[in-house]
Write a structure and sequence with these properties.
With 131 residues, the protein is an alpha+beta fold. It contains 4 helices and 6 strands, in the order H-H-E-E-H-E-E-E-E-H. The chain has one domain (3-129): Nuclear Transport Factor 2, Chain: A.
Length: 131
């Protein structure tokens, strides 16, 4: 699988909430960089993070509008969306959609880098309002 195909498969597994599938596509030296610029490594950490993310936002999806790829990386432009749960329930007022960009790098069919670029202040405002 080439880099573009690997990165798009990674997005598919995210959209399917397939935590084991996401981890299977990660290389041992995988690196995740969130929208604040914080870097995280390690499959155990990522397993816990994805599981918690899908509980907090059970309808989380990445909408892909445009893909630009070369031999070094794949850029995805689109939208991230989800609904924050409150006491295990989803309410429409807790739904968010934010323009987002993602940078994916894969080697030998495994993801080595996934970076998110988005303004997540709206999501943090929802979390605070639901405390």
């Amino acid at each position: 699988m080439g880099m573009k195909e690997t990165v798009l498969e990674f997005v598919e597994r995210i959209n399917s909430h397939d935590v084991d599938g996401i981890l299977d596509l990660m290389a041992e030296d995988y690196r995740f960089v969130n929208s604040a610029g914080d870097t995280f490594r390690g499959k155990a950490f990522m397993r816990a993070t994805w599981r918690a993310h899908f509980v907090q936002y059970p309808d989380f999806q990445i909408r892909v509008d445009r893909v630009i790829a070369d031999e070094q990386a794949v850029a995805i432009f689109g939208l991230a969306q989800g609904t924050l749960t409150r006491n295990g329930e989803m309410f429409e007022e807790n739904h968010w959609e934010i323009p987002s960009a993602f940078l994916g790098i894969a080697k030998a069919g495994k993801m080595v880098h996934w970076q998110v670029f988005s303004d997540t202040s709206m999501v943090f405002d929802l979390i605070k309002a639901n405390e």
